[in-house]
């Protein structure tokens, strides 16, 4: 398996992705729960 360092840094450069990863450390959540915690619309993080 090859690790694409550029892709990793691109993913980590987005503040919402970091926030989502932090939230998911405690377990699975559905999109609506993530939306409520972050205070953003689900369409903003569906592509993350």
Features:
single chain; 48 residues; mainly alpha; 65% helix
Please characterize this protein's 3D structure.
The protein is 65% helix and 0% strand. The protein is mainly α and 48 residues long. The protein has one domain. The longest helix has 10 residues, at 15-24. The two termini are 21 Å apart.
How is the topology of this model organized?
Layout: H1 5-13, H2 15-24, H3 31-38, H4 42-45
Distance between the termini: 21 Å
Total separate domains: 1
Order of helices and strands: HHHH
Query: What would the principal axes of the Cα set say about the shape?
Result: elongated
Helices and strands: which structural class? mainly alpha
The portion of residues forming beta strands comes to: under 5%
Separate helix tally: 4
Mean pLDDT: 83
Which stretches are poorly predicted, pLDDT < 50 over at least 5 residues?
none
Rg from C-alpha positions? 12 Å
The largest sheet is:
none
Multimeric state: single chain
Helix content: 55-70%
> Count the strands?
0
Short structural description:
With 48 residues, the chain is an all-alpha fold.
């Amino acid at each position: 398996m090859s690790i694409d360092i550029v892709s990793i840094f691109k993913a980590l450069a987005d503040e919402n992705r970091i926030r989502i990863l932090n939230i998911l450390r405690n377990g699975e959540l559905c999109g609506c729960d993530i939306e409520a915690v972050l205070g953003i619309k689900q369409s903003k993080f569906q592509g993350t």
